[in-house]
Amino acid sequence: GASGSVPPQVLPFSFGESAADVGDIASANCVVPKGDLPLEIRWSLNSAPIVNGENGFTLVRLNKRTSLLNIDSLNAFHRGVYKCIATNPAGTSEYVAELQVN
Q1: Assigned superfamily of 26-99
Q2: Nearest C-alpha neighbor of 33 from the set 67, 1, 68, 65
Q3: What is the pLDDT of residues 56-102, one digit of tens each?
């Protein structure tokens, strides 16, 4: 067993195959199966940080390695590129998914 630090690894996620409609809900799970704890898990939309409770976003830290992003009522603001960023002392990993809103 190597005694090095293990950087995070974010699993791919998606908002679904098809575009969403205005008023729908949307959610995505960011899971970080690899990486030393403690992990910081953050979300951004079009490079702007997502804040829990703002702009219809709810962020829930389900456990040490999983963060749930929920949007309660979609509008044009929510379309774009979502990024989950996981960080620990050994490094950073991110995954990007696009949400299309009709």
Answers
A1: Immunoglobulins (2.60.40.10)
A2: 65
A3: 999 999 999 999 999 999 999 999 999 999 999 999 999 999 999 99
List beta partners, residue 30. Answer: 67
Break the chain into its structural domains and give their ranges: 26-99
Neighbours of 86 (CB within 10 A): 25
What are the residues whose beta carbons fall under 8 Å from the beta carbon of 89, sequence distance 6 or more? Answer: 5, 36
pLDDT at site 3: 59
**CA atoms of 47 and 80, how far apart (whole Å):** 10
List C-alpha distances in Å: 95 to 8, 11, 31, 42, 102.
11, 7, 10, 11, 23
